[in-house]
Recover the amino acids of this structure.
């Protein structure tokens, strides 16, 4: 069973700050997902990573497979980035499923 | 852009009643999932479905739960006799190439 730990649990930042959210997991995976959940509850997939680094706009996700660790960075944070960011890991094959972390609540103040 | 849809968005039911949550996955996806999130807790896997049968289910997914793909588009989760602890947000997802696309969720409240 894979354990997924995120830190910090809560993060408050001022607009414009650089944000880092960390995720570590205990067992080898096929891929790691970063998801965003807004107060209304809907979940949006941000990144799916199996190695290296991905960038989309102001968001950057990195993964170190050997260390079983991933980070999500937000550059030039904005109040609209306020949401819960969830790390989830997936294992491959026909029974691919996600195991989720508890999420990090990010609040960006203007 | 294609998206996963779920109905209803909210449902309130009495304990012991049956509920059916409906999902329309993205049309060319082959893998389907149900997850749930109890208020304030993390998202949990319930069941995966492929090729018209269950691929894997969690220990949460007991005999009170069932899934069906009654036609080419809908994917349903039935809870036969709801309990108070079934109150949660239920998410459907469909997958292509290991990227899962989530529906907006159904918020179920059992009274």
């Amino acid at each position: 069973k894979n354990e997924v730990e995120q830190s910090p649990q809560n993060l408050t930042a001022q607009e414009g700050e650089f944000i880092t959210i960390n995720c570590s997991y205990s067992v080898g995976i096929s891929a790691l997902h970063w998801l965003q959940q807004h107060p209304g509850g809907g979940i949006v997939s941000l990144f799916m990573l199996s190695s290296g680094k991905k960038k989309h706009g102001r968001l950057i996700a990195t993964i170190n497979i050997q260390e079983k660790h991933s980070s999500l960075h937000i550059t030039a944070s904005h109040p609209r980035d306020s949401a819960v960011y969830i790390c989830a890991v997936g294992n491959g094959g026909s029974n691919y499923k996600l195991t989720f972390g508890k999420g990090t609540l990010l609040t960006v103040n203007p | 852009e294609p998206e996963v849809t779920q109905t209803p968005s909210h449902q309130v039911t009495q304990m012991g009643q049956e509920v059916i949550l409906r999902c329309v996955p993205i049309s060319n996806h082959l893998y389907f999932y149900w997850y749930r999130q109890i208020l304030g807790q993390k998202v949990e896997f319930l069941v995966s479905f492929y090729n018209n049968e269950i691929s894997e289910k969690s220990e949460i997914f007991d005999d009170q739960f069932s899934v069906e793909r009654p036609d080419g588009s809908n994917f349903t989760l039935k809870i036969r006799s709801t309990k108070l602890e079934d109150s949660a947000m239920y998410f459907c997802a469909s997958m292509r190439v290991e990227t899962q696309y989530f529906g907006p969720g159904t918020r179920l409240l059992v009274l």
